[in-house]
Amino acid sequence: MYMSARGGISLPFTAIRSGSFSLSGCLTAHHITAESSAKEINQSSYNMADIDNKDQAEMDPADMEDVEEVEEEETGEDSKARQLTVQMMQNPQILAALQERLDGLVGSPSGYMESLPKVVKRRVNALKNLQVKCAHIEAKFYEEVHELERKYAALYQPLFDKRSEIVKAAYEPTDEECEWKADDEEELSDEMKDKAKVEEEKKDEEKEDPKGIPEFWLTVFKNVDLLSDMLQEHDEPILKHLQDIKVKFSDAGQPMSFTLEFFFEPNDFFTNTLLTKTYIMRSEPDESDPFSFDGPEIMRCTGCPIDWTKGKNVTLKTIKKKQKHKGRGTVRTVTKTVPNDSFFNFFSPPEVPESGEMDEDSEAVLAADFEIGHFIRERIVPRAVLYFTGEAIEDDDDDYDEEGEEADDEEGEEEADEENDPEYDPKKDANPPAECKQQ
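RE: above sequence
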């Protein structure tokens, strides 16, 4: 996901379908590092040294005497040059300056296009026009994907409605519907299963009969890092009253959008029974930059007003400050109402101005908001029970483990390359610089 030139957040199709959505995961850029440049410089020195050795082997011994002093002088200069290169590459200021210079070259024209004949440039322009047409076809593809999502959302909804009825105790599932063979039950004997069943029944008799599945959505939120980071202690009593979350797609022929609907039972905190958050999307190439099109963009989002009961608004807090009069020296206490951290700030997102220009803080808040909305739509609502039990979290962790193993493999390859390097000295790595040693 990334900010487009129009101020929207791009959602690549692969991220939309897989749900593996992150602010950084969709950014792609190839950076040339100073370290790789240093290796290329050193490798060039090694190659030159090999050529010099071959030339010397082919020279006549008599000629060698004439040039011996000159060669020694040149060899000394080469050695000094290599030492200077190594010293420069160890200077963090030089490395930072070099990296900044190289980063500035990324994405800049190489000059190759300018060197092409006019007739070839003309044909390249024809290819670009074809590419623009491809972008418009791709936009139509995503529009049809959205229509397909709408179609299947209608098929999923009866199942989600039944889930909601079970959670809020409006429907009691039958014994057949409750049968589930857990993995740890496969190896248990019939006798052990009967014993475990009796013990569970005794425990249920000792406890009060709970209705539905208490605190279902609150548990889901607390189990997901992305959402639990938003929760405050004062939010939890309110979210215990959350009964269901639904995703509603825009109607056919309407601009592309989706709405998250949060259904609450009557409570002491606000009078609303429904809170909504709508995300407006766009799936068409920007005329000023058609090649940047990479799928639907979330352009803006709108929340809804919350009708808080007096004294129950957790998005605000009252603070008291003492002020001293400069002349008389008297002290007075001033009461102020200031914003307070809360999950329910989610329903009051920053507005996107018509110009699309926003300050960095608002842009960061909006980007995080889009990520959360997308995650709730793609992951939480369809797989809520698995986030309640923690099974979906384990699957997410497995995905990260695989990425970690790949990173470990890459590090192993780098270490192997260092060991194969004839100039590599392991003793240098074993002794860190003085400034890195612990005092």
